[in-house]
Design a protein that fits this description.
Length: 285
Amino acid sequence: MDGTACLAPPVSVAHPPRQTVPLIFASPHSGRDYPPGFLAASRLDPLGLRRSEDSFVDLLFADAPAHGAPLLTAGFPRAWCDANREAWELDPGMFDEPLPPFVNTSSPRVGAGLGTIPRLVASGEPIYAGRLRFAEAEARIRNCWQPYHETLTALISATCAQFGACLLIDCHSMPSGLAAGPDMVLGDAHGSACAPAITRFVEQALRAQGHVVRRNDPYSGGFVTRNYGRPRRRVHVLQLELARGLYMDEARIEMLPRFAAVRAEMAGLIGKLAAAAPDLLADRG
């Protein structure tokens, strides 16, 4: 990889001393290691690039290992490489050469500027001042996207081998101010990625904390949810989106004083899931 490579490891896993529950938590979009060369090549300042982050989500779920579940985190930022996309969703207009035929250039995500190597930040501003070489995109995918998914696949396989089933909570954040203002959105690909009883349990647990919760609107689940969620094989994936205004200043990308309270609520959710997981996952599918 060239001099714009990320400095931190692309993937980290906070393991419990012993995994005691069939749960995995993952944060693919909270990475905040911005390579200096990437910053120099961007039209945006560092704060503008961070608009695409699910800032601090990994810290909100940092208590997962204390409840016996691993926490997987991407170290690389979403604006650099998006782990919640197919491996090769690329916009041909971003590159100075034709792309190989195996590249998916026509997905809705590519059309929206939000492919594996995004053209835009989540707020809509273009990232790059010039065009990229395909080799650069290929290096990011091979050095960031692939290790993330190899690690996730291994965690799911190990969990299923130990417990016979697995529930992955894919953790994200969303801009505040959506219509009707939900605090959280649960995405289970309209019931195809996670057993309805599991989605209902999480929904009820969050509502008991006083949150307004919506299902599958406007986020029904990204690549991770749809690719890994196989209830008939006893692998369930539920995407959880938290409104950023609950815990952070969205303009400054800084934690609010109530961050600790929201982290405690997520720890409470993790604890409830850990206690209920054997029954929730029994013969689901």
